[in-house]
Design brief:
three-stranded antiparallel β-sheet, Aspartate Aminotransferase, domain 2, seven-stranded mixed β-sheet, Aspartate Aminotransferase, domain 1, about 425 residues, binds pyridoxal-5'-phosphate, 2 domains
Length: about 425
């Protein structure tokens, strides 16, 4: 199993703290936002005397809340389309286990969420990276380039949109391209949408979920009654809805990372049957937290836009600071709460460690995640770091000052 590149610097951070150095954590996507009032209240007023197993598929009330939630995006679901999971993490693992046999391949734009590596390892599947570039804002390369990666063992494309770790929000044309490729090569589309609402400048026509790809009415596909018509594949829309598996989570949406509640959603009956069998094997997802999640879903419609406003402000602080740093390349993050800048250094792993072991300014330093671990291709991302903007603006501004100072010192003393 690969070690998490995000967590392996933790001992150095602990040592820095033991020396009395204050460490700003830009390395991990743990939001500092308080969990919704209603979710906390549900915990406080919990009546049960037994913390019991819940249904393997999920608690009935919570499944209904999820159906209402997706309906807001024009996505009509039935209970049988949803399985509650222990975090989005379990949904991703289930999706890989369900769709692929050991040795088969899944295409994933890199840099990608590093735990995909671990889940792929468990499922015995191989990640084939679609390399994207910092200069393009990590948007997808041409469809020809993507298609050239497809071989007989390729069975799926996994997209994270908005993306952790890049902050990229894929454009409608990119998604349509991926859909056409999936149709043409008969691939599953695995869609990680845990950051769905975290889009800073929504573009008209962009998808909020790949579950919006439906058998009927796909206006974005120019009114064609078969997705493949323009490409001559002859696939019907119904095939399309059947190939999409969506993975979701309340961890980021409601700042409830520790609740461990996510879900897997598909209109494909066989997929959902398999998901339920996996879910039965692990008995159930947390019961109490599903009650909290249910309560969180009852927050007013204004709740999430306000949270996204907060993150937009943080994004601006980080991006403007990075842009002003000499030698740093960075495009403006469009969503989620991450960015990957390229730094004028020799090795980001060395730099990230040095920040914790050797650098401090006025008793403070920053912790960042070296980006190489987010790539599958060896040698890529060695000058890049991932920054999570999950601190309040004043702390982020200070952290950016420290980073700029650290870069200058590192370049003078270490290169
Ligand atoms: C892209 C992405 N997918 C899935 C997850 C897993 O989320 P959960 O806490 O629901 O397991 C994360 C968590 O950071 C993530 O960033």
């Amino acid at each position: 199993m690969p070690a998490s590149p995000i967590r392996k610097l933790v001992p150095f951070a602990d040592e820095a703290k033991a020396r009395g150095v204050h460490v700003y954590h830009l390395n991990i996507g743990q939001p500092d936002i308080e969990s919704p009032e209603r979710a906390l209240a549900a915990l406080e007023t919990l009546q049960t005397r037994v913390i019991a197993y819940s249904h393997s598929q999920g608690e009935a009330g919570y499944l209904e809340a999820l159906i209402s939630y997706y309906a807001r995006f024009g996505i009509a679901l039935e209970r049988s389309n949803i399985n509650v999971t222990t975090g989005g993490s379990e949904a991703i693992l289930f999706a890989l286990l369900i769709t692929m046999n050991p040795g088969e391949e899944v295409l994933v734009p890199e840099p990608f969420y590093t735990n995909y590596n671990a889940f792929a390892q468990v499922a015995g599947v191989v990640i084939k990276p679609i390399t994207t570039q910092v200069n393009d804002g990590f948007h997808l390369p041409s469809m020809e380039q993507i298609e050239s990666l497809i071989g007989p063992q390729t069975k799926a494309i996994l997209l994270c949109n908005p993306s952790n770790p890049t902050g990229t929000v894929y454009r409608r044309e990119e998604i349509d391209g991926i859909v056409q490729i999936a149709q043409r090569h008969d691939l599953w589309i695995l869609s990680d949408e845990v950051y769905r609402e975290f889009v800073f400048e929504p573009r008209e026509g962009d998808y909020q979920s790949l579950l919006q790809l439906r058998s009927e009415g796909l206006p974005h596909l120019h009114g064609a009654d078969s997705v493949g018509t323009e490409q001559g594949t002859g696939f019907q829309h119904s095939d399309l809805a059947e190939r999409v598996i969506m993975m979701d989570s309340i961890s980021k949406r409601y700042s409830m990372c520790g609740a461990r509640i996510g879900c897997l959603v598909s209109r494909n009956k066989e997929v959902m049957d398999a998901a339920l069998r996996l879910a039965q094997a692990r008995l159930s997802s947390p019961q109490v937290e599903q009650r909290m999640a249910l309560a969180a879903h009852g927050m007013p419609d204004t709740y999430l836009p306000e949270i996204v406003d907060v993150y937009r402000g943080r994004r601006d602080v980080v991006f403007e600071a990075l842009q002003a740093m000499p030698g740093v390349t960075c495009t403006r993050p469009e969503g989620a709460f991450y960015t990957i800048p390229e730094l004028p250094i020799d090795n980001a792993e060395r730099f990230a460690r040095w920040l914790l072991t050797d650098f401090s300014f006025e008793g403070e330093t920053v912790m960042v995640a070296p980006a190489a671990g987010f790539y599958a291709t060896p040698g890529l991302g060695t000058q890049q770091i991932r920054i999570a903007f999950v601190l309040e603006e004043a702390s982020l501004a200070r952290a950016m000052q420290l980073l700029e100072r650290a870069l200058a010192t590192y370049r003078q003393t270490m290169l």
